[in-house]
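Chapter review: from sequence to fold.
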Amino acid sequence: LARPGAGWGAGCVRRQAPGAGSGGRGQDPRARAGVGAQDAGGRDLGGSVAAVGLRERAQIGRVLTAEDPKRYPKATVARLLGVSRQALYHRPAVEAVEGGVVLRGPWPDRRPALSDALVIEAHILDVCRDRPRFGTRRVTAMLRRRLGGSGAARGVVNRKRVRRVMREHGLLVPQRRIPRGEHAGRIETSRSDEVWATDLTKIATREGWLWLVGVIDCHDRDLIGHRYGVSADTTLCLGALGDAVWERFPDRLDALRAAGVQLSHDWGSQFTSRRYGDELRALGVCSRPTMIGSPEQNGIIERFFGSLKDEEVWTTEYDTRAEAIEAIDAWIGDYRTERPHQALNYLTPAEYRAAARTGSTCATQAA
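The C-alpha cell string follows.
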C-alpha cells in the first residue's frame, strides 16, 4: 500500500470506473461477470484485493495500522482493503496454536495459555481423582457445578466429552448388570418428612466390626440421623431416631405428630422390639415395615449404604473404629452438601431443601 497522498504506485489498488477497459465501454462490469467482491460499503474491489479473504484483509489492516498509525490511518486502510473500520479494532480473544496452547489477552501483548479443551479435560481429571467411583453422569454434574451450571457450561461440558476423556485415561467405572425382577417397592413421596427410612450396616476395621445405623428422608435424600456402635442393639437404633427427630423437629413434638411421619424399616429384631415400637408411638411416628425378603421396599436407605461402601468404605482400610468414624463422617458431610443426586435433578440434599423452601422450579422438577 502506498502512503496516502503520495500518488498511486506499484502494488496499489485502484478502483476502475464503470465501463473502463477494452470491450466494456458503456456496460457495467457486474452485468458481464456477475457481482464481484465488494467492500463494506457495497463498492467493487480490485482483483488483487478481492482474491484475499475478508479475515486476512482485516488482519493485514490491523498490522499496518498498528505499525504506523499516522502513516496508515484506519479510515483510509479500511476503504482500500474493503473492510469496516470496526474490523481494524477487533482483537480475537483466543488464537489457537499447536499443542493445545492458545494466545490470550490484548493484541499484540498476548501470553500463552491452555486451550479451553485442555482446561475442561483438566477439570474432568480432577473430579475423577477426587471421586474415582463416579460415573459419567455424576462427573458431568460435578463439572457443571464447578463451572457455575450456566447454559454456556452445559454446552461446553456434555456427557459425551466426559465419557471420551474418561475412556482415554482408563477412568470409566465398570457397570454391574444385575437382573431385576418386577416389584412394587418404590417409595412415593410428595414432600419432606413424609416417609423416613432406617437400617443397619457394619464396617470392617482392624480393631473389629463397627456398626452404623442411619435414618434418611425418602423425599430429599438427606441423612438426618446416624449413630455408631460396637453392637447393633435397640439403644443404638433409638439414638439415630432421636437424632433425626431433633434434626427436623427440635423441641416441637406437636409438629412431629402433625406431620404424620412414617418410618420404613425391615423386620430386624431392633426395629420390631417392644421398646422401639413404644418410642415410635410416643413420638407419633407410624411404623411402616417392609415385606419379608423385599429389601427393595427399603431401597433408599439401602442405596445410601451402597454408595457409602462403594465410594468410601471399600476403597479404604481402617486401622481403628475411630479412624473409620472420622472418614465416614467426612463422607456423610460431603454427601449432604456437595454430592449431586440424580433423583434430585443433580442437586445436593441441602440445595434441594433450600429450593423447596423457596418454591424453586428445580425442586419441583426433581419431585
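Two observations follow directly from the output. Confidence is low (pLDDT under 50) at residues 1-24, 26-37, 93-101. The chain is about 45% helix and 15% strand.
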